[in-house]
Amino acid sequence: MALAGPVARRLDSLTKPQGSLGRLEEIALRYCLARGTAMPEPGPKKIVCMAADHGVAEEGVSAYPQAVTAQMVANMLAGGAAINVLARHTGAELELVDMGVAADLSRMAGLRSCRIRAGSNNIARGPAMSVEEAIRAVETGISIAREAASGGFALLGTGDMGIANTTPSSALFAALLPCRPAEVTGRGTGVDEAGLQRKLATIEKALSVNRPRLGDPLSALAALGGFEIAGIAGLIIGGAAFRLPVVVDGFISSAAALCAIRMNPAVARYIFFSHVSAEAGHRFVMDRIGERPVLDLSMRLGEGTGAAIAMSVIEAALKLYREMATFESAGVSSREGA
Questions:
Q1: Is residue 220 included in any domain, yes or no?
Q2: Rg for the chain (alpha carbons), in Å?
Q3: DSSP string for residues in 151-175
Q4: 285-321: per-residue pLDDT in tens?
Q5: Closest CA to 313 of 23, 108, 44, 95
Q6: Please, are residues 100 and 116 in contact by the beta-carbon 8 Å criterion?
Q7: Is 209 inside a domain boundary?
Q8: In sequence order, which residues have a C-beta less than 8 Å from that of residue 48 and are 6 or more positions away?
Q9: Are 15 and 330 in contact (CB under 8 A)?
Q10: How many domains does one find in the chain?
Q11: Residue-range definition of the domain harbouring residue 77
């Protein structure tokens, strides 16, 4: 933390009243600490959107059929999804990764295949995957983060695509915080009241069936998670390992982030939570882990959309920190007595 002093002094020396840029100053400080330098070089941004299917979809916990996962991957590859628009707008490179979609996507050009298998198991009946499969998925995320770091990227963002993936995410929150499922479970893609009650019952059953496997974060991730959630956890761990700050998207990515933090608490220093999702329970989670996301736009789409927008704010904070004149360099008088 010795670096915090010089960074704070530079922020205070910029031609503005001290603290007048509010959270932008906090963001600049956090970014510098993550990068390990008082004057980090700007660089390109990358969003990694991971896709997978979930066996728990057969419990009727989503308003959309499972086939939509593959259909949306195709839409993203064609450039037509919200994340494509926002990635283009913010100038971020977008990489789509198949971690385990329950369809043959081998002919989809531009899709990176890191699939563990075609969809996870139904968590209401047993573990989503084996611990060995979870490790493979986590290691995949770490490897992608390593590539991004060696490729000169300065900021990494997470995204997800997977029908029914709010259910395993809520189950992970309930197990790892811990808390009652009702505190972290919402309507996801828009299920009705009967669907919400079915979703809650499914999560309760998943926690009960998998209780012996919830003793540590890795086994809990294997029991309750999904291939894309495990991959995102690895991406976050890898970002931390290579001092590459990671902008975590919304509800699903936050579940992956919580898994990563529980595996290694030091990871938290390298994370920017992008926004407070409108999905019920996300604000509760952020409050519980003591994090204040960059934005609150009532979004709940996923894909990396919140991360893309927050990247622009983080980049703006860094540019202000790097490019503003100081009182001394500009010949401007500082406040009286300073």
A1: yes
A2: 20
A3: TT-SEEEEEEE-TTTHHHHHHHHHH
A4: 999 999 999 999 999 999 999 999 999 999 999 999 9
A5: 23
A6: yes
A7: yes
A8: 95, 97, 141, 144, 148, 156, 157, 158, 159, 232, 235, 304
A9: yes
A10: 1
A11: 45-313
| pLDDT above 90: residue 168 | yes
Neighbour order of strands in the sheet with 155-161: 111-113, 92-100, 45-52, 155-161, 246-248, 271-273
Question: Tens digits of per-residue pLDDT, 245-259?
Answer: 999 999 999 999 999
CA pair distance 169, 167, nearest whole angstrom: 5
Specify the CATH number for the domain of residue 174. Answer: 3.40.50.10210
Model pTM score: 0.97
Catalytic center residues: 303
Cα 240 versus chain centre, distance: 13
Rounded Cα distance, 329 and 15, in Å: 9
Compute φ and ψ for 223, nearest 5 degrees: -75, -40
Q: What is the pLDDT of residue 137?
A: 98
87 in a domain, yes or no?
Answer: yes
Q: For residue 333, count CB atoms less than 10 angstroms from its CB and return exposed for 0-12, middle for 13-18, buried for 19 or more.
A: exposed
